[in-house]
Amino acid sequence: MKSYSPQLPIPFDTDWHHQFGRRLSVFPRNICFNEGATAQQYWPDLATFTEDLESAQMAYYPAAPSPFSVCVVYRKCEARWETLKFCDDLVLQHSTGETFEDVMEQTIISGLCRGEA
After folding, report:
1. Mean of the pLDDT values across residues 43-52?
2. CA distances in angstroms from 91 to 10, 21, 83, 86, 113, listed in the order given
3. Where would I find the H helices in the chain?
């Protein structure tokens, strides 16, 4: 386990967008993985946002082309969060939590994967 206190992602504000603000408020505005002087930022791809009665999810990608991505899932019925870090279609990291803060802390602490940054 890493010995630093990670900077947790900040969720979207409910008034960020007139139509989607409330629906996006369970998602982080970005996700940053740090290891020493190396960092990798992941940004939301709003075109990947999907929602149904049971869950909402969205994908996050680095600014530069990369095989890595992060998927954030909010399970509405259970009020639980889940994150999955992918390299292409291979799941490298999986975190779950009962609160936004729990899952984001687990996600960030998992750190960078080999070849990610």
Report:
1. 94
2. 24, 29, 10, 5, 11
3. 21-24, 100-109
Buried b (16+ CB within 10 A) or exposed e, 84-96: bbbbeeeeebebb
Domain positions in the chain: 21-109
**Region 51-75: what's the mean pLDDT?**
96
Determine whether 49 is exposed, middle or buried from the number of CB atoms within 10 Å of its CB (0-12, 13-18, 19+).
middle
* Token pair of 117 as six digits: 């940054």
Q: CA nearest 81: which of 62, 108, 61?
A: 108
Residue 5 above 60 pLDDT? no
Least confident of 3-7, 33-37, 107-111: 3-7
Place of tokens 């409910």: 14
Burial class (CB in 10 A: 0-12, 13-18, 19+), 51: middle
**What H or E segment, with its residue span, contains residue 78?**
none
Q: How far apart are the C-alpha atoms of 59 and 46, rounded to whole Å?
A: 8
